[in-house]
Design brief:
The complex is a heterodimer of chains A (344) and B (357). Chain A has 344 residues and is of the alpha/beta class. Chain A contains twelve helices and ten strands. Chain A has two domains: 155 residues, Nucleotidyltransferase, domain 5; 165 residues, Nucleotidyltransferase, domain 5. Helix content of chain A is 42%, strand content 17%. In chain A, β7 and β8 form a beta hairpin. Classes of the chains: A alpha/beta (344), B alpha/beta (357). Chains A and B meet through α2, α3, α7, α8 and α9 of A and α4, β6, β10 and β13 of B.
C-alpha cells in the first residue's frame, strides 16, 4: 500500500463549506467558502439554507483548493471527509461528494471525526512545515467552540477519553445567546470579546459548576442569571454598561473553563495542554489557559492561525494523515455514512 | 497619487478635493479610528470596478460602506431593533453593522444574503467628508489583498506595489494612526424579536396541564412523566413537542426529560449550533431541533422534517414560533401529534410549564 501524503479534505459538518489540500501535516490551502465568497461568481445569491446544504459552494471550493495548491487529482493520495458530529443533511452532501470523487479518481477515503480534527488542529503547519510542534502524551485537550465544550485526555493518537463536557449549552453558544440578550447581533462572541476590552468585570455572575466535583460544564444557569441581571439593568444601560457587562461575562466564561482545567491537571497530571475550537479566537481565554499551563510547568499549544480555530478542512486533512499512519483506509466506501452524534 | 497632509487648518480644502475625486469615480485613502481605509463612491459602478481591481483576489467578497450617520444609513439598509441598539450605543466607532440592504449601492458590495455592512467611523474629519459628499463611500482597509493593514503612509508604500499605488488618486495623510484592530463585524439580521414572536401560540391556563416547577430537575421530571401518558393515547404515532419560551427558560431541560423517558442515557446537549441532534432509542429516534439559527421556518422542511416523522419517533423543537405554520401542515400530512408547550419564567428558579394537544 502506497504511503498517504497528499490529501484533499472536505468538511461540511455545519454552516461552513471548507476544502483543504494538505501534505502530511502541512497545509497547502485551506478554503473556507464563506470567507472567499465565490458564490456571486458561481451561484448568484445563496440563501442561508443553500449555504448550509453546501450544494453550490462545494464544487467551486474543491476546484479553488486544488488550483491554489497547484495540484490536480492525480497528485492526491486520498480524500478525507468529516462524517460527524454535525448536521446530518449537511454532512451527507460532503460524504456524497467524497464518494463520487473517490470513485472517479480511484482514491481511498479516510473518514474523520470533526472533534478529533479540532483536537489535532494545533499540529497543522504552514506549507513550509513551520512551526515545529509535537504532542507530549498524555496530554489534556480543551475544545471550546459554538457546539463543544470538552476536556479530553489524550493517551496517544487515536486514544481519547472525554473527562469533562457540557451538560447543556456550549461556551460559544452562551456567548451568542448573551449577545442576543444584549441585543448585539449575531454572532455575539467576537463583539462581546471586543467590548470586554473596554470594560471592567464589575458585575457578579455565577461561575457555572463551581461547586460540582466533576469536570463537567453547564451554561444554562449562567444564561438565566444574565437574563435576570439584564432585565433589571438593560433599560437604563449606557455604553459603559455594555462594555462592563461584556467583560464580566467573558471573565465568567474564562473562569468556568480554567477552574475545571486546573482541576483536571491536578487529577490527570498531563504533560501538555492543547487548545482547539473557535472560542479560542478569544485572546483572553487563550492567555488564561496558557498562563494556567505555565503555572503548572506545562507547555501549551494552540493552532497557528485564526482559520484553524474555527471549522475548517485543513485540520481534517492533517487528522486524516495521522489516522493513515495507524490504520488502513476503508475498503468498502459505499458503507460510509454520516454519524451526527459521532463520539470521540 | 497625490498625498495631502491633513492639518487643522485645511479640513475644508481637503474635503473639497476628496469630494471631487470621489465624484469622478476615483479612489482615495483616508484615515479612520482603525487603519487607513480605501474610499470610492459606493454607488458608482466604475469606481467599484477599480476597488476590486485594486484589492485583487477577492472577487465577490462584500465590502462595507461608510456613512456619516444613522439618518444616512437608513437610505441604504433597513435598520431593525438590534441594529438600532448598536447605532445608539456604539456608533460612530469601530463596529461594522450588517443589515438588510435596500439595494441602493453597487450589488457587489452586498453579501450573498443581500445584506450590507455599515460603518460610521469614529473619526470626525471623515464624518464631515461623508456628510459633505452625501453619498456612501467604501469602507475597507487600504491594503491590497493579503497584505498588512496600513497605519501610516510609510506602511502603505511599503506593502503596496507601484502598479497598485497608481490606482489611488488621493492619499489623505493624517500621520501614524494608533494600531487599533479593524472593526468588529456584527450581523443584526438573525433572530429579530419580531421573527421569534411570529405565530406565537397562547395556551390558556386550565387545571391538569399547568405545572409550576422550582428547579431544573423538576422541569426534567414533568417532561419525563408526560411522555408515557401520551404514548398510551397515541400508540406509535410520531410525537412533536413544540416548545416556546425565552432564552434560558429550560427548553433543553424539557428535552432531557423526554430523552430520559425514552431510556436514552447520552447527555442531551443544546442543538443550537448544529440545529438537529438525533439519538436512536429502542423503538425509533429521538430528534432534538433548535430553530434559533434558522433564517426562515421553511428551512426546516428542507432539512427533512417530513422524513423525520416516522413511526415511534419523538421530536422536540425549540423556538417553535419560527416553524409553526409548516409544522402544522407537515404534521397533519404525516399524521403526527403535536404537543404545544410553553415555559414561562416566574422567578430565577421557578417556571410555569403548560401544554396543549
Amino acid at each position: 500500500m502506497k504511503n498517504i501524503k497528499t490529501i484533499l479534505a472536505i468538511d461540511t459538518s455545519c454552516d461552513e463549506t471548507s476544502v483543504a489540500v494538505t501534505q502530511e501535516d502541512r497545509v497547502l490551502t485551506n478554503i473556507i467558502a464563506s470567507q472567499i465568497e465565490f458564490h456571486k461568481e458561481y451561484g448568484g445569491v445563496v440563501p442561508m439554507l443553500a449555504k448550509r446544504m453546501h450544494l453550490q459552494l462545494l464544487d467551486p471550493a474543491i476546484k479553488h483548493a486544488l488550483s491554489r495548491s497547484r495540484l490536480t487529482f492525480s497528485d492526491l493520495d486520498a480524500i478525507a471527509i468529516t462524517i460527524g458530529p454535525g448536521l446530518a443533511p449537511a454532512l451527507e452532501v460532503g460524504i456524497e461528494k467524497a464518494k463520487e470523487l473517490a470513485q472517479k479518481h480511484k482514491l481511498p477515503i479516510i473518514t474523520v471525526n470533526h472533534l478529533e480534527a479540532h483536537l489535532l488542529s494545533s499540529l497543522a503547519k504552514n506549507s513550509q512545515g513551520k512551526p515545529q510542534r509535537q504532542f507530549l502524551f498524555p496530554l489534556l485537550g480543551v475544545l471550546v467552540s459554538g457546539r463543544h465544550t470538552e476536556l479530553v485526555l489524550v493517551h496517544d493518537f487515536g486514544k481519547y477519553e472525554i473527562i469533562g463536557q457540557t451538560q447543556d449549552d456550549a461556551a460559544g453558544e452562551a456567548f451568542d445567546k448573551v449577545a442576543r440578550m444584549l441585543n448585539l447581533g449575531y454572532p455575539g462572541g467576537p463583539i462581546i470579546s471586543e467590548f470586554a476590552k473596554h470594560g471592567k468585570p464589575i458585575y457578579k455572575l455565577p461561575i457555572p459548576m463551581l461547586h460540582s466535583n466533576d469536570l463537567n460544564f453547564s451554561y444554562s444557569g449562567l444564561k438565566t442569571a444574565c437574563l435576570y441581571k439584564l432585565k433589571e439593568l438593560l433599560p437604563k444601560a449606557g455604553k459603559q454598561f455594555f462594555y462592563d457587562f461584556s467583560a464580566s461575562f467573558e471573565q465568567t466564561i474564562v473562569l468556568s473553563i480554567t477552574l475545571k482545567l486546573d482541576k483536571a491537571i491536578r487529577i490527570y497530571k498531563p504533560k501538555q495542554i492543547v487548545m482547539g475550537g473557535g472560542v479560542f479566537s478569544n485572546l483572553r481565554l487563550r492567555n488564561a489557559v496558557r498562563q494556567l499551563a505555565r503555572k503548572n510547568g506545562l507547555p501549551s499549544l494552540a493552532p497557528v492561525s485564526k482559520k484553524l480555530f474555527n471549522d475548517n478542512a485543513a485540520m481534517v486533512g492533517v487528522c486524516a494523515w495521522y489516522q493513515s499512519k495507524r490504520c488502513e483506509p476503508l475498503k468498502d466506501i459505499t458503507k460510509i455514512d454520516r454519524i451526527p452524534q459521532y463520539k470521540l | 497619487m497625490q498625498v495631502i497632509s491633513l492639518i487643522d487648518q485645511n479640513h475644508t480644502d481637503v474635503i473639497k478635493l476628496a469630494g471631487a475625486v470621489l465624484a469622478r469615480g476615483g479612489l482615495i485613502v483616508y484615515p479612520t479610528e482603525t487603519c487607513y481605509g480605501l474610499g470610492a463612491d459606493a454607488t458608482n459602478k466604475k469606481a467599484i470596478d477599480l476597488v476590486y481591481a485594486y484589492k485583487g483576489n477577492r472577487q465577490g467578497k462584500p465590502i462595507s460602506i461608510a456613512v456619516a450617520d444613522q439618518h444616512m444609513a437608513q437610505k441604504y439598509v433597513s435598520i431593525n431593533q438590534t441594529a438600532l441598539n448598536i447605532y445608539k450605543h456604539f456608533l460612530p466607532g469601530p463596529v461594522t453593522v450588517i443589515s438588510r440592504s435596500l439595494s441602493q449601492v453597487d450589488p457587489r458590495l452586498e453579501s450573498l444574503n443581500h445584506t450590507l455592512g455599515i460603518r460610521i467611523p469614529g473619526y470626525p474629519f471623515i464624518l464631515q467628508l461623508l456628510k459633505s459628499f452625501n453619498c456612501p463611500v467604501t469602507a475597507t482597509s487600504a491594503n491590497t489583498s493579503g497584505q498588512k493593514n496600513p497605519y501610516s503612509l510609510a506602511d502603505f508604500k511599503k506593502y503596496t506595489s507601484l502598479t497598485k499605488i497608481k490606482f489611488i488618486d488621493l492619499f489623505i495623510d493624517a500621520g501614524v494612526l494608533p494600531e487599533r484592530l479593524t472593526s468588529t463585524v456584527v450581523d443584526t439580521t438573525l433572530n429579530e424579536p419580531s421573527v421569534l414572536r411570529q405565530g406565537e401560540i397562547i395556551i390558556p391556563d386550565t387545571p391538569g396541564q399547568v405545572f409550576i416547577t422550582d428547579s431544573e430537575a423538576a422541569t426534567i421530571d414533568i417532561a419525563k412523566n408526560l411522555l408515557p401518558n401520551l404514548r398510551k393515547n397515541f400508540s406509535a404515532k410520531p410525537l412533536i413537542f413544540a416548545l416556546q419560551g425565552e432564552l434560558g427558560a429550560g427548553k433543553t431541560r424539557f428535552a432531557k426529560g423526554i430523552a430520559q423517558a425514552l431510556g436514552i442515557t447520552e447527555i442531551i446537549t443544546s442543538p443550537t449550533f448544529t440545529i438537529i441532534n438525533e439519538y436512536p432509542y429502542k423503538k425509533g429516534k429521538f430528534i432534538h431541533i433548535d430553530t434559533w439559527r434558522l433564517e426562515r421556518g421553511e428551512e426546516l422542511s428542507e432539512l427533512g422534517l417530513a422524513e423525520m416523522l416516522q413511526k415511534n419517533n419523538v421530536l422536540v423543537i425549540e423556538w417553535m414560533q419560527k416553524v409553526k405554520p409548516i409544522l402544522e401542515k407537515i404534521a397533519a400530512a404525516r399524521q403526527a401529534q403535536i404537543i404545544w408547550v410553553t415555559i414561562d419564567y416566574l422567578s430565577l428558579t421557578k417556571r410555569k410549564i403548560k401544554y396543549l394537544l
